[in-house]
Amino acid sequence: MRLFGTIDGEVSRRDRSAALTPPFDFFAGGYLYYVGPDVPAAIDYDTPVGYSPPGVTAPQLAGVIPFEDRDYYLACRAVSDAGVEETNTSIVIRVRIEAGELVGPPPAALDADLWRIEPAADGYVRLSGTYLGRDAEADATGIQVARVWTSTGAVDWGADLIETVTLAGRSAAGTYAVSQLLTPQYSHGETVRVAVRAVTAEGVAGAHAVLGPIATDTVAPPAVDYVSAGAAT
Q1: Digit-coded pLDDT (tens) for 57-94
Q2: CA–CA distance, 11 with 37 (Å, rounded to integer)
Q3: For 112-215, CATH number?
Q4: In the beta sheet, which residues pair with residue 79?
Q5: How many CB atoms are located within 10 Å of the residue 49 CB?
Q6: For residue 62, what are the contacts with CB-CB under 8 A and spacing of at least 6?
């Protein structure tokens, strides 16, 4: 597990020289680690769960996180040789456990207001939208699309996955524009809802949004993409 952070300027601090209990009472300076479940506010800064000596940029921290399926937040603080600890609350990373395994951070959630599905010719459905991935913890490589069968929005990503649309052509602002016909061809007037979510190359998915419902159309002609004019000779 790699942890990175810098501490600049004046910081709040507290005296840890007399407050630490084994196995963290033998060091001369370094870094202390703390953990909490679900939200950063749950981090227990009174109970360090790990220690690394100064100069170590990729500490190996064994047994500091219970492998229960949930999110955990891990924090890091520096401690001086005199046992004085700075008290930042900003050097924090999220760790996710799924099926008893450590998984990477998820990509950014989709903004449902920026995505839509609409009927296309011959019973197809077009997905279009903009993915705002610039502030994500991890880069997305695709958008997963799954059929939603009920108005409750419940999704079975294993059984009902339609396809994964590849993200390409990232803009200078860090966004992606998507416009693609989805693979299934539906009958006329069929009600379609889909769920969409971003996914990383490692298969870690972000929160999903539900789009629709729409009614498919097999009667309308194909849409006109463009028209141009020129002088006849």
Answers
A1: 788 777 777 778 888 889 999 988 888 889 999 888 88
A2: 25
A3: 2.60.40.10
A4: 30, 85
A5: 17
A6: none
